[in-house]
Design brief:
single chain, alpha/beta, Uracil-DNA Glycosylase, subunit E, four-stranded parallel sheet, two-stranded antiparallel sheet, 8 helices, 6 strands, EC 3.2.2.27, uracil DNA N-glycosylase activity, Ura-DNA_Glyclase_AS
Amino acid sequence: MESSSYLTLSNHMNDQSWRDALQDEFEKPHFKQLQQTLNKMVTDDGETVFPSIGNTFTAFNLTPLDRVRVVIIGQDPYFNENQAHGLSFSVLHPTPPPPSLKNIYKELISDLGQDKFQIPNHGNLEVWAQQGVLMLNAVLTVTSGKANSHAKVVGWEKFTDRVLEILNARVGQPIVFVLWGQYAIKKAKGIDKNKHHVIESGHPSPLSVKHFLGSKPFSKTNQFLQADGSTEINWSL
């Protein structure tokens, strides 16, 4: 764990556009409590929290608010060493892709063809984020070895609800929201479908992959972007 205190977690939001948009949120009691809860977990209880404190806001720092074109919502970070780094579904180099990401790769080949996507030997999706894909987890932290351990305990849900409100209210270029599984669909229920594009399917987890494979979210996303006069996402890694 880096030496920085979770009591000043908001300082790790480096992108100015998101800092400005979320400034009021950082001052709210529930975010102050969130910082205190995380600080107690690490300082008093000796827990290891993923991702590292400096990577908590990677999704925002790599994808400024005015550059968001696509949002892919995940639930919470991976909980093993050398996996989570602040982007939903993505893992640090050189960690091999976890099961859900392997299924995402399968769908990419099925959807786009092997001429446009070849399975890499890693699971790092930063190049998507750099093209305007906000890889947003609903809960931004997790305790080592304990899946979903910070859901409803830390309070991230209110924070990411506010993020979605900001995106929904943004004027100009419509955003493509890619929602995999009922959790993501419910999380984004407030998105205005008359203003933005929404693509829904099952989750890529092995438990629900039959409702994910064949859904073609990547080509559908690019069709929406092209229709709106925006550059397509290059999904190759």
